[in-house]
Specification:
With 347 residues, the protein is of the alpha/beta class. It is built from eleven helices and 14 strands.
Length: 347
């Protein structure tokens, strides 16, 4: 059986601002095993990146408030000292940030930046660290890595800069790799290549991966499990096949419905989810998705628990008051067919 690597329980992260308290992450819980790929999906502003940055200890500031627990191999991250977090970052948890151009130092050669990361965590001479940096670049799919290690970030394409970030993140063989929107602003061909590299490197090194993205389509071939977040909360969680073939939350239906399908007749326009995400300073009472949900009813004014409602899928949890039979009936009424022939819906 796989070893439990990460356990997040009832994580809450808020920020005190001039407008009020922003509850960016609200009672988020999930687990991650060694070698597993977990995708966290949702619209911008739903708390995905704040959750990931909190695991790295990068949201600590005078106006931040934390509660709950986040344990890496049994060690609590929220209460770890800054000195301990500096040891953990890069060596045990590494992160590929969304924009590689701003994450890389523009006036330092990429090889030197990877060397600096390695030497910050290990007692190793510069020549040996450079050889390891070159090997990491080769593993990340960068051609002519020895020559390209002497190049500056602006001499790389967007896709190659992202590969440099992946090489840097994996250079110290971390237990956990967090990739925050690693395919944003890349064309679909490069997106597929980057995701394939992440999948291959995870399998080769038994590294667990948290993939943060707004697009369910990009995780279809890489994730083992998916966590769907909305307005700071987890609204659905389950295995890849469970969420794609039998989604249980109306918000997940909307995300799936917005994916263009090449096996269907082209619609006049892509379906969208009506409305906008709520303000996290003053979110709606009860279910946060209630103002945008066409299936809202009186009980939605209460906060639904995140729990399993399917007898044949105990690990598939959702936060919706509708029963499984009601959900399937509403998907049939809307007449949309799911990715494996099951009915699903466009909100």
């Amino acid at each position: 059986m796989s070893e439990r690597l990460l356990q997040v329980e009832a994580l809450r992260v808020s920020f005190v601002t001039d407008e009020g308290v922003v509850q960016a992450v609200d009672e988020v819980s999930f687990a991650l095993d060694s070698g597993e790929v977990l995708a966290i999906v949702g619209e911008s502003g739903c708390g995905k990146s704040v959750t990931a940055l909190t695991l790295m200890g990068l949201t600590r500031s005078p106006n931040a408030r934390f509660s709950g627990s986040a344990k890496l191999r049994g060690e609590e991250l929220l209460s770890a000292s800054e000195g301990r977090m500096q040891q953990i970052r890069g060596a045990e948890i590494a992160m590929v940030f969304q924009d590689p151009m701003s994450a890389l130092n523009p006036v330092q050669r990429v090889g030197e930046q990877i060397v600096e990361q390695i030497r910050a965590h290990e007692r190793i001479d510069k020549d040996a660290a450079r050889e390891r940096a070159i090997a990491a670049m080769e593993r990340a799919g960068i051609p002519h890595a020895r020559e390209r290690a002497s190049a500056f970030p602006h001499e790389f394409s967007g896709g190659m800069r992202q590969r440099v970030m992946i090489a840097m993140a994996l250079s110290c063989s971390p237990h956990l790799l967090i990739a925050d929107e690693p395919t944003t602003a890349l064309d679909v061909t490069i997106q597929a290549q980057i995701l394939e590299e992440l999948k291959r490197l995870s399998a080769e090194a038994s590294t667990s991966v948290i993939l943060v993205t707004h697009d369910l389509g990009v995780v279809a071939d890489i994730a083992d499990r998916i966590v769907v977040m909305y307005a700071g909360r987890v609204v659905e969680e389950g295995r890849l096949d469970e969420l794609f073939y039998d989604p249980q939350h109306p918000y997940t239906w909307g995300l799936l419905g917005s994916i263009a399908r090449i096996d269907r007749e082209r619609p006049p326009r892509l379906p969208t989810i009506a409305g906008q995400p709520p303000s996290l300073v003053d979110p709606p009472a009860g279910c946060h998705f209630r103002p945008r949900c066409p299936h809202e009813f009186s009980r939605c004014a209460e906060v639904p628990a995140l729990e399993s409602r399917l007898a044949d899928a105990p690990g598939h949890r959702d936060r919706c008051w509708l029963s499984p039979l009601e959900k399937r009936a509403k998907r049939v009424v809307n007449g949309q067919i799911g990715l494996a022939g099951e009915t699903t819906v466009t909100v």
